[in-house]
Design a protein that fits this description.
The chain is of the alpha+beta class. It is 21% helix and 29% strand. It contains three helices and 16 strands. The strands form four sheets. A six-stranded antiparallel β-sheet has the order 2-9-5-6-7-4. A four-stranded antiparallel β-sheet has the order 1-10-11-12. The chain has a four-stranded antiparallel β-sheet with strand order 14-13-15-16, with helices on one face.
Amino acid sequence: KKAMKEFALRDGGFTLVELLIAMAMLAAVTAAVFSLYNMQHKVTRIEEDVVDVQQNVRTGMDSILADLKVAGLGNFISPLGTYPTPIDSSSSATDLTINTGSASGAAARLDFSQPPNPSTNTTFTTSVVAGTPITFTLSSAPVSATANASIFNVGDKVKIVSASDKGQPASTSFTVSAVNTPTAGTLQLTPAGSVGTVTFVNGHIISRDDSPGTYPNPNTVHYCIGPAPGCGNSAVSAAACPALANCLLRIVNNSPGDSSVVATDIQNLGFTYVLDNTTLEKNAPVSTDFPNIRAIRVSMTGQTNQTKNLSKGPKSRQLTTVAKIRNR
């Protein structure tokens, strides 16, 4: 009976050693689960950062390509260059200046065959007198004439240039005084100066002049990585460009104060140029090369910043493309 009683007592619970062993096993399992969760959480954060960097690179590239499409549009100098003075003259291989008639890309073509004019009209001859409004008919391409007119606002400063020779049929600036009035698809422009009788033809370009300088200076759009000496300044707030974020800046009309952050975490930005009659790419063209540039290769690299310590160093994503210069 005594032996049976002792066996029953032992069978009724766990010894201290057994409890310690069970707790040790539970701790090991818990640690393994936590380690797996922590590793998965870290991987997720890193991948999210990589996706953000990849998206930043795409956003930056899309912005540059969009401006390159209007390089030289409505302008009378080379589409690319350093006009009037380079913001960052240290290297043309790591920054880019685009010359265009409108930094905002607001431009439309004239087409006098559109209603309300006779369908055979290809020219429009009128007297350009300071302060006297003139109504111009816009083309219906690439969208409707009404939509083309609607990209302009009353009070906008515009200029009219020839798409073929980049000259100015009327050497004066205009102010938009009415949009889609009196007929949809028209702009009413008031000239700043008197230049006499002028013949405008289909295909002439009206472009909004976003430059603060004296007409007829072209608009410039400059891309570089900053804020840094020669690329942006304190006008770019810390909120818009966090410390060590390596921001891709778009600077309009050579004014560092007019800087906008296009993308962050851009580590490298590079440009090489293809000139006429050659297949070789040039890193840093001289001033005489700019009118002869027919294509530009844009290369951009982004690196993770927030999670670089979690992955034993930054991870990078690179995008490279070639853009043809259309308006030469």
